[in-house]
Amino acid sequence: MLVFDEILNEAFFAPKKVEELSETFKHNTPFPHLVFEGLFSPDLLELMYEEFDRLKWSDWRRFDSINERKRSSYPNTRFGHATQLYFSAIHSNTFVNFIERITGIEGLVPDPMLVSAGAHEIPPGGKFAMHLDFNRHRVTKLDNRLVFITYLNKDWLPSYGGALELWSAGEMKCEVKIDPPFGRSALFAH
Question: With 90 as the cut, is the pLDDT of residue 51 above it?
């Protein structure tokens, strides 16, 4: 059993740590980003992992094009309890305020319907080519300012590929690769 106060690692929320994360976020290149290790309870992540394959096939959208071969959950998908707890945590005032303090962006509004978020899976042989996310949310019409991802890739090996690549716009080259092992989270400016 998990209680809400045990979902997030409180060490990240200390004012000095937030200040350190903010400086790192703002000065990282090719654009502001952070990588978190240990932000979420390992118990929560394990429970989410167990729930992942229990999503019904009807809850998944499939994408198969030249740029992507993946699946993602539909908006308002009913997730298992642990996954719903994760989304409730990252949509909470506590977490949104934490992200605002790191990024310096005030008035952030999460996507609680998960219209452009939710669960995603890129299968073996799949792909998610270099792209820019949407600029405006299709329902709320709010600007898309940030992306937050938590990976649930158990036993991931670098030989599998699949690292998130952050490319510079000017030089058109990959400057940062973020490997996707289990429990790692990434935050980056859009």
Answer: yes
